[in-house]
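Design review, sub-item: ligand-bound model
Attendees: FS, YL, KQ
YL presented the inputs for the PMT complex:
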Amino acid sequence: MSMDAIKMLQGKKILLGVSGSIAAYKAATLIRLLVKEGAEVKVVMTTAAAGFITPLTLATLSKNEVPLNISDHNSWNNHVMLGRWADVMLIAPASANTLAKMALGLCDNLLLAVYLSATCPVLFAPAMDEDMWHHPATRSNVDKLISFGHQQIPVESGELASGLFGEGRMAEPEQILTFLQQHFQQKNGRKALNGTTAIVTAGPTIEHIDPVRYISNHSSGKMGIAIAEALADAGANVQLVLGPTSQKTTHPGITVTHVQTAQEMFDAVTTRYPAAGIVVAAAAVADYRPANVADKKIKKGEAQLHIDLEKTPDILRSLGDNKGPQQLLVGFSLETNNEKEYALKKLRDKNLDLIVMNSLADTGAGFNYDTNKVTLFDKNGNERSFPLKSKQAVAQDIVSAIIELQHA
Ligand code: PMT
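KQ shared the predicted structure:
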């Protein structure tokens, strides 16, 4: 954990509301992480949550009594004070039932009484099965809570308690911790990546055959531009090295360098690399280029034309080979098959900290779409899958993972 991150939660008063979901077991790890970061934690839980994890466990870890019922000793008077005591109220896990009651302003348990009394910012981490998560009632409850100014911590995709795979799993405690740190950083007017220079590569490259023809691919640059904007929103000074595309950004935190070929992208990135703390390589760089570029248009002749190709420089591999101890390197992996195997190989071979796997086998993912579906693998063996989202939302997930890794 970096010194900055330690300062972020040191002495902060976190009121954790735990509702009834199997994910309640993660509350124990979350409390341990928060206490380790110097936060003061008080817990309120519903009786349904107590069926999944005991109040004694959470009281022991938080070093504070855990009231359950509104009629418990002192709870009636204290619910207002608890709501006022906290710097932030975090409801994790937030079950479908608790979300619905919060949206309606119902107050039939202590957690809800505290929530309604809370004058501090409220964050919630939903946890439920995929069908419940997608139900229009849940969707509108979440929208309503966001309209109250509450922040939703994104759900994850993966194996659910039902045994099915899908969206709705509560974020991991480490991710919730990062979210909280970002919350306090923003509140202090300090952004998580202030003072960091980040290089992002985006778009395709083109490799000339002759003055009128070239080899290229379908990359639009949308994914890389979304990442550049998310990094700049987080305070980074972003150098965007952009291949030929009609996509643009006007973000004031981004300086754009336009390039065409893999060699030009390599040169632009390499000269900027020593000053960079973070590099995200989202560009679809051509792996091969014509060994010789004809200086005049090649005339139509024989039935077949053979063009000798040679390898382009592997930008990311070269950065990985020369990575400094404070530099964090993020690559992408785009495949049509054996996606995980190839992604993990690139993570290892190119000496990356994080790799973002996307597959052309997933509808709505990859080139040119406004959406993408990614799985993140980091150098510590963690794997995190996300559902299909807008490229802006994917970029947020990637930037959160980068900040998390910086603090690890
Ligand atoms: O631009 P969009 O239309 O929004 O589409 C987004 C995207 C599909 C291009 C993006 O999400 C993506 O997957 N980018 C990487 C595509 C790719 O070239 O993947 P790869 O598996 O072939 O390369 C692995 C990594 O090495 C990538 O980070 C790539 O940028 C990098 N590389 C590859 C070759 C090379 N010569 N130099 C490199 O730096």
